[in-house]
């Protein structure tokens, strides 16, 4: 026994090197008896089948493959605080939190960062377009699943979190955060990354390149795992995207660099998707800080463009406009009052380069205060804020 308080990190997706950094593992294991419970093979087995499984990253990771294994781990572990990176998304997850509560653990939730999201029911109507959207986006199926979870939660003791670290104000529409007993102003994962990058890089002017935030739209693993159709086809989307970049580069004289999606793809994929352009992994924040303009769809990495006040251009195509994903592009685009450009239009790249893009300062500030950081949060590291909360409000 170390005398440190127990802190569990509960995960539903396979733990990755990227998670090690963004979840502050080095900082947390210095302060707590830390265990990272990778429950992906139990709660989300499809992710294990489809995603890259990394070899053991650190000694704190424990693989949990069943409810029985979870119960056994909890039974032998001193009660502490369990950080919820899972959510009450399924009956199994709800049972997991029930086991923790019965064992004396307190539940913490952390507003890791959100983006503006659509009010989907406004898209559902008795019109043909509304019914097609409901089918493609699985709105009705998700509503029925939510009803089932609500009934299970009513049958069990209260699972309200004991501690919530909240960023901005968007959490006020999330019942799980609203129900937390203690709410502590904090900031998002991306704001924490923003702090770290600012601490180690110079304040270079934003004039070196244009940047595209890749989301692997033609073959995103989340889409497959959740049963959706891909919003665009590789063949049409890649051709339109390269044409847009070619025209923009010719007119502006500025290269377009690619901030690669974290899941590894083959060199052949990137060559076919982006030609000979510079594709960079694991440096999205740094690239956005140095970019003159950022091209995007609906990535959470929009946060970095907002924080560094970089001009954003939201890219769409005919396929994307007709897909279930389009409302998720429009939601942040409208909040930020940023241009929406159709890459299927032949002259689009030239027009963007000629006309330029400006930042709507008030909209960017509102976005930051809504989704990324509580204005009254401490300037400390996110992990210092979390550690203080756990030590003050965790089990005695």
Kindly report the spatial arrangement of strands forming the biggest sheet. Answer: 3-2-1-4-5-6-7
Total of domains: 2
Q: Describe the oligomeric state of these chains in a short phrase.
A: single chain
Estimated radius of gyration: 22 Å
Strand content: 15-25%
SS class: alpha/beta
> Which overall shape is indicated by the principal axes computed on the Cα atoms?
globular
Helix content range: 40-55%
CATH topology of the largest domain: Rossmann fold
Report the total helices.
20
Q: What's the β-strand tally?
A: 13
Largest sheet: 7 strands, parallel
Name the poorly predicted regions.
Answer: 120-126
Please report the distance between the alpha carbons of the first and last residues: 16 Å
Q: Would you give an account of this structure?
A:
- By secondary structure, the protein is of the alpha/beta class.
- Helix content is 45%, strand content 15%.
- The chain contains 20 helices and 13 strands.
- The strands form 2 sheets. A 7-stranded parallel β-sheet has the order 3-2-1-4-5-6-7.
- The radius of gyration is 22 Å and the shape is globular.
């Amino acid at each position: 026994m170390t005398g440190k308080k127990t802190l569990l990190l509960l995960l539903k997706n396979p733990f990755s090197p990227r998670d090690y950094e963004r979840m502050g593992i080095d900082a947390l294991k210095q302060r707590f008896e830390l265990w990272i419970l990778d429950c992906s093979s139990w709660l989300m087995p499809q992710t294990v089948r489809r995603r890259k499984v990394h070899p053991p990253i650190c000694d704190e990771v424990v693989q949990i493959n069943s409810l029985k294994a979870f119960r056994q781990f909890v039974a032998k572990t001193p009660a502490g605080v369990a950080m919820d990176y899972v959510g009450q998304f399924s009956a199994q997850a709800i049972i997991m939190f029930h086991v923790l509560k019965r064992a004396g653990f307190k539940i913490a939730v952390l507003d890791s960062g959100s983006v503006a999201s659509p009010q989907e029911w406004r898209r559902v109507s008795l019109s043909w377009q509304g019914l097609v959207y409901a089918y493609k986006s699985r709105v009705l199926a998700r509503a029925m699943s939510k009803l089932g979870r609500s009934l299970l939660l009513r049958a069990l003791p209260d699972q309200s979190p004991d501690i919530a670290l909240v960023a901005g104000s968007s959490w006020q529409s999330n019942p799980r955060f609203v129900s937390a007993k203690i709410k502590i102003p904090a900031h998002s994962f991306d704001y924490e990354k923003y702090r770290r990058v600012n601490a180690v890089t110079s304040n270079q002017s934003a004039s070196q390149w244009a940047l595209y935030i890749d989301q692997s739209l033609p073959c995103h693993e989340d889409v497959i795992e959740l049963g959706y159709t891909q919003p665009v086809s590789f063949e049409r989307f890649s051709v339109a995207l390269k044409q847009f970049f070619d025209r923009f580069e010719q007119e502006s004289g500025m290269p377009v660099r690619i901030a690669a999606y974290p899941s590894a793809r083959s060199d052949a994929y990137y060559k076919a998707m982006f030609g000979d352009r510079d594709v960079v992994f694991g440096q999205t924040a740094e690239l956005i800080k140095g970019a003159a303009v950022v091209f995007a769809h609906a990535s959470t990495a929009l946060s970095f463009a907002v924080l560094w006040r970089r001009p954003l251009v939201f890219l769409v195509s005919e396929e994307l406009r007709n897909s279930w994903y389009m409302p998720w592009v429009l939601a942040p685009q409208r909040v930020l009052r940023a241009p929406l450009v159709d890459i299927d239009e032949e002259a689009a790249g030239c027009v963007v380069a000629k006309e330029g893009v400006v930042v709507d300062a008030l909209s960017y500030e509102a976005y930051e205060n809504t989704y990324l950081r509580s204005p009254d949060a401490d300037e400390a590291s996110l992990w210092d804020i979390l550690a203080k909360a756990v030590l003050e409000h965790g089990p005695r």
